[in-house]
Amino acid sequence: MIPYIDSTIDEFPQLIEGTSPTPAADHLFKVREEGVVLLYEKRAMAFHRTVAQLLFLCMRARRDIQTAVAFLTARVNQLDKDDWGKLKRLHQYLKGKARQC
Asked: What would you report as the CA-atom Rg of the chain, rounded to the nearest whole angstrom?
């Protein structure tokens, strides 16, 4: 599954720099009520595709990302910049841990 992880990171439309020690931060389940900046359509489509790829990945091999992926799958109808940041952090985690599992 390492090549699959690498391809999801490479296909992500934003450069993934650095790594993260955990797949999600403490604020994973916090959603803003005010001041929400929604994602534009092209980025929302990339979000959908990436979350689908990660859903496949967590069901096949990476159970450590299940909580973050479950939250992101619930957010696909109301995407905002915070969700994009959470997805980016998940990629940073995978980038750092891909070869360890």
From this structure: 13
The gap between the terminal CA atoms of the chain, to the nearest Å, is 10
* pLDDT tens track for 40-97: 999 999 999 999 999 999 988 889 999 999 999 998 888 999 999 999 999 999 998 7
User: What are 21-31's pLDDT values in tens digits?
Assistant: 999 999 999 99
Q: pTM to 2 decimals? A: 0.90
Give the residues across from 80 on adjacent strands.
38
- List the structure tokens of 45: 């489509």
Closest alpha carbon to 49 in 19, 7, 16, 85: 7
Give the Å distances, CA to CA, from 11 to 47, 49, 81: 11, 10, 19
Measured over the CA atoms of residue 30, residue 36, residue 39 and residue 41, the dihedral's sign is positive
3-class DSSP state for residue 74?
Answer: helix
Do 19 and 96 touch, CB atoms closer than 8 A?
yes
